[in-house]
Inverse folding.
């Protein structure tokens, strides 16, 4: 079956060849190549004919990079080059065995996403694919998987682009609205000498740690970190759980802090429980969580239209190293210890200028070592730490893809050289916590049960019988 692109328009004043930003070059290189896979589980089944109209009329017009390939000019500079898109090359419809149960098809979906995550996008065409899964899952009757290179943009700009191509279920004429969120780093208003001195001391400590983790200092091997060279090329498994945002807010009201502190505490506790079940004790080990941080939060997020107009789609992500609490292998640890510890650690990280310094470090490294040197620095930071977490905030309203309502969604980032990574996506009163792990090294079913147990125990410890 052949698909043809219809009515594709281009602004006459737009150049057909645009140099790639240094960050895009860094994330699409021979050293590290990251891909975002965004899975929407639909309440009704979508077919490939509907997705073609969606791509032509809504998806392609949202971002010029979806109609561009990576092209190296005569000076050896990677560029985005506009091309005509052959949609047939980008729409994939997998075939699963017939007659399976919904549970089995749901597992087939996870295995399929795991499989395509390990397949590199072709550099001969625009760096994206859409996979239409015409089988039921536990949250609906079908699925659509957006697979997009991280070089096109950071998670926020990529998913905002996808959201911009979707429609509200209650009123398709209105755009989806993302929460208006900005971040103020604690203590920035204070003018006391000790406040600045404390921040400077913390910044020097964080900066030293950042340099060491990006060069020679590796975390310990453990039940969640194999330390295998090239782990990003090994098969992966995916597990996820859904947590009610109302339940998270109930816990937050009892223990304080932010929702991100609470989710970090859940991850800390999950790691503790999993290592305990595997007979591995964390005490005495060096274990760190790499927290991916979107710099857009510092000034407030913008809509995709505003980002395109200001030419600020791209990648605006930095990262900070956060220690994982390492304790004896005990069953009777207070679950709230991990939330309290997460809150304490994140407060300490906020009382530092490290988030503002990461980008200048990257720029200086680019001048000294070139784009490949930056790629190696980013790769080494991932490789030398135990795990990472990144998150996305979804729209306030229920959305639909090509007229099909979305029941649930989650995402993963493929190509990260770690045995275990976490992602969270919040949408319509639910938070989806997803773990991507090295297959045949980490037990995905056990880790999933540990994620469930971690939150349940934290909720019980904080709220008791409250509902």
């Amino acid at each position: 079956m052949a698909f043809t692109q219809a009515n594709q328009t281009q602004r006459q004043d737009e150049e057909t060849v645009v140099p790639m930003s240094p960050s895009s070059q860094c994330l699409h290189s021979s050293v590290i190549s990251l891909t975002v896979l965004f899975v929407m589980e639909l309440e009704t089944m979508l077919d490939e004919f509907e997705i073609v109209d969606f791509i032509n009329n809504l998806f392609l017009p949202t971002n010029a990079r979806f109609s561009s390939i990576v092209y190296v000019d005569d000076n050896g500079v990677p560029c985005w080059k506009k091309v005509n898109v052959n949609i047939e090359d980008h729409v994939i419809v997998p075939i699963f065995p017939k007659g399976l149960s919904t549970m089995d098809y749901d597992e087939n979906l996870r295995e399929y996403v795991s499989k395509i995550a390990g397949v590199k996008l072709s550099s001969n065409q625009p760096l994206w694919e859409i996979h239409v899964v015409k089988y039921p899952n536990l949250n609906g009757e079908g699925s659509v998987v957006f697979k997009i290179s991280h070089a096109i943009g950071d998670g926020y700009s990529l998913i905002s682009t996808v959201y911009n191509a979707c429609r509200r279920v209650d009123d398709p004429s209105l755009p989806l609205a993302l929460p208006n969120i900005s971040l103020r780093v604690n203590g920035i208003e204070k003018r006391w000498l000790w406040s600045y001195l404390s921040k400077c001391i913390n910044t020097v400590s964080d900066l030293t740690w950042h340099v060491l983790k990006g060069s020679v200092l590796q975390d310990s091997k453990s039940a969640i970190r194999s330390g295998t060279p090239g782990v990003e090329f090994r098969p992966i498994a995916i597990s996820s759980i859904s947590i009610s945002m109302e339940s998270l807010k109930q816990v937050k009201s009892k223990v304080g802090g932010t929702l991100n502190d609470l989710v970090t505490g859940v991850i800390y506790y999950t790691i503790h429980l999993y290592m305990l079940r595997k007979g591995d004790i964390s005490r005495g080990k060096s274990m760190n969580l790499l927290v991916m941080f979107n710099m857009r939060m510092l000034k407030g997020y913008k809509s995709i239209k505003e980002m395109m107009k200001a030419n600020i789609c791209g990648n605006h992500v930095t990262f900070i190293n956060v220690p994982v609490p390492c304790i004896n292998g005990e069953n009777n640890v207070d679950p709230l210890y991990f939330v309290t510890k997460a809150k304490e650690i994140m407060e300490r990280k906020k009382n530092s200028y490290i988030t503002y310094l990461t980008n200048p470090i990257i720029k200086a490294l680019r001048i000294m070592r070139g784009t490949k040197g930056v790629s190696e620095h980013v790769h080494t930071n991932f490789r030398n730490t135990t795990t990472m977490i990144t998150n996305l905030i979804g729209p306030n309203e229920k959305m639909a893809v090509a007229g099909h309502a979305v029941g649930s969604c989650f995402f993963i980032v493929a190509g990260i050289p770690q045995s275990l990574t976490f992602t969270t996506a919040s949408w319509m009163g639910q938070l989806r916590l997803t773990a991507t792990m090295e297959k045949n090294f980490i037990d995905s079913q056990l880790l999933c049960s540990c994620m469930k147990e971690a939150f349940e125990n934290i909720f019980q410890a904080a709220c008791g019988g409250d509902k």
